Amino acid sequence: MSLRRIAAFSDGRTGGNPAGVHISAELPDVPAMQRIAAEVGFSETAFAAPVADGWRVRYFSPASEVPFCGHATIALGAALALDHGDGVFALTLNQARITVEGRRDGAQLSAALQSPPTRSEAVPPGLLAPALALFGLATGDLDPRLPPARIHGGADHLLLALRDRETLRAMRYDLAAGRALMQDHGLVTIALAFAENERHFHTRNAFASGGVYEDPATGASTAALAGYLRDLGWPHGGAITLVQGEDMGQRSRLRAEIGLERGASIRVSGLARVMD
After folding, report:
1. pLDDT digits (tens, 9 = 90+) for 50-88
2. Cα three-residue angle 259-255-118, rounded to 5 degrees
3. Which fold does the domain 2-114 belong to in CATH?
């Protein structure tokens, strides 16, 4: 058994989103995985065990299991590259089969995941108003080019695109109220985004559903956002870059490559650094 702490989507040798990576011959039982995730204390820990055609993977936050976690998958890809060399590794999740590619270049680690299928839809009735109220936002704070949406890239997120960078920087909300709202509507995070231009975004992700105020880098919601932009007909040029975590002192960098096929997987990549 090995337990590593790896920051995914790092900005060189700093920043990124810390994840636990627990690799063992067999997955621990659910209470043990939940306990280990709480002890690690990061927003998510990935648990992996070998199976005939790759790796069986489950993800736990300190408070609950989540169906898919992008940054923990990037951290897992880096850990597998350290243990097994560069390669593409097949992962079986609770609800999907994906891959992660791990690479080493000297001391630098990088990884790229292929997300589960993506989809997006209009915000259902009864969600937008309380979500805006949670963050103290008004409809005039929203970017009319990017309508609010429920987006999916392995997990469900609410997207609120903002008109200006300062509104994003000022994000505040009540953790308990946010958790209740996310649990009531089956959301893993609420993603706030600002489009600096057509191919570069700044994002913040409230992760109250997992008992975490804010995630500094969120690969799953990045995949979901990229799928949403494709479905919307946004002129993304085939790829977008995101800066996340900057406003909480953990600057992270993510890249998403976007194909033409509606609903298709999104490739999300970034650097990773071992923390211990």
Report:
1. 999 899 999 999 988 999 999 999 999 999 999 999 999
2. 45
3. Diaminopimelate Epimerase; Chain A, domain 1 (3.10.310)
> What is the pTM assigned to this prediction?
0.93
Q: In angstroms, rounded to a whole number, what is the distance separating the alpha carbons of residues 189 and 197?
A: 23
What topology does CATH give the domain 119-274?
A: Diaminopimelate Epimerase; Chain A, domain 1 (3.10.310)
Dihedral pair phi/psi, residue 72, rounded to 5°: -70, -30
Angle at 63 between CA 59 and CA 67, to 5 degrees: 30
Which one-letter amino acid corresponds to residue 72?
A
**Six-digit token pair at 36?**
């280990």
Confidence of residue 125 (pLDDT cuts 50, 70, 90): confident
Q: Name 4's bridge partners.
A: 21
In 24-134 the beta strands, taken as DSSP E runs, fall at: 45-51, 54-60, 65-66, 87-92, 97-105, 108-114, 119-122
